[in-house]
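Researcher: We plan to redesign the surface later, but first we want a full-length starting point. Tokens attached.
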């Protein structure tokens, strides 16, 4: 995982293949504004929303009235505080996160580095939880942020759990961006999955950001309705290739413990 999570979502992707009803249009607008790097002007939203000016104005008004968006003093639109409240409640009640929490903490105590838990959503990984490292230099990342799947440890670990047809479909849908000289191409990424599936670990070798490395392992439900990963991330001068290999087994064990907990805690209720 890289140290910054910028404008990962393609705004055009947010408007593609979305329901055209009122709720669908509102969700498109929320996607556009919340994934922007900075607050957006009305004309900026109009350019990517694909809605008539009058309709867009009304929809933004509804979202603002409900507190899901807010209008800044200069007229630009930004995510509203109600989103933060909804997100915090959802995060606090997330059973999977609660099951994973002790294993994430144990992994952080063992390594001293930042530990992430992520889930696959479309062509991105969404971070559900993070345990901050105890080292002086820490990672910039936020719960709820999205990262690309093809150049992050958690992303590649999650993809490795998928059958080949789903894996190929997702890779084919991604617009690969060259973040560093180590960023993989679709061809090299596909070849790497043989190693990931054999070893049970995925690595980010400064593929998302120069100076950042991580080791990850997949976490998934038996029916693959949930696919994600757990990772240890840190600066390259601490996470040498030897250290990454040293921590590969503890990361796999943490992932397996989380999956065992999922089978018990999220199994059929009687």
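Model: Full-length starting sequence:
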């Amino acid at each position: 995982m890289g140290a910054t999570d910028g404008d990962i979502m393609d705004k055009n992707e947010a408007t593609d293949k979305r329901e055209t009803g009122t709720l669908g249009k509102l969700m498109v607008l929320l996607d556009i504004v919340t994934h922007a790097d900075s607050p957006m002007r009305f004309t900026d939203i109009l350019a990517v929303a694909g809605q008539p000016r009058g309709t867009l104005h009304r929809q933004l008004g509804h979202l603002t009235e409900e507190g899901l968006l807010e209008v800044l003093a200069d007229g630009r639109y930004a995510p509203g505080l109600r989103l933060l409240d909804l997100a915090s409640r959802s995060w606090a009640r997330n059973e999977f996160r609660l099951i994973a929490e002790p294993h994430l903490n144990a992994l952080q105590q063992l390594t001293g580095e930042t530990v992430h838990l992520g889930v696959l959503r479309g062509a991105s990984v969404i971070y559900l939880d993070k345990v901050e490292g105890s080292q002086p230099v820490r990672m910039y990342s936020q719960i709820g942020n999205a990262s690309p799947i093809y150049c992050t440890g958690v992303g590649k670990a999650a993809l490795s759990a998928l059958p080949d047809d789903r894996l190929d479909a997702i890779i084919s849908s991604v617009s690969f961006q060259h973040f560093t000289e180590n960023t993989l191409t679709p061809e090299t990424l596909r070849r790497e999955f043989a190693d990931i599936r054999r070893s049970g670990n995925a690595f980010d070798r400064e593929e998302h950001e120069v100076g950042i490395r991580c080791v990850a392992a997949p976490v998934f439900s038996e029916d693959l309705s949930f696919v994600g990963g757990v990772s240890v991330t840190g600066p390259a001068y601490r996470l040498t290739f030897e250290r990454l290999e040293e921590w590969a087994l503890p990361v796999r064990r943490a992932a397996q413990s989380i999956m065992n907990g999922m089978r018990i805690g999220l199994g059929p209720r009687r």
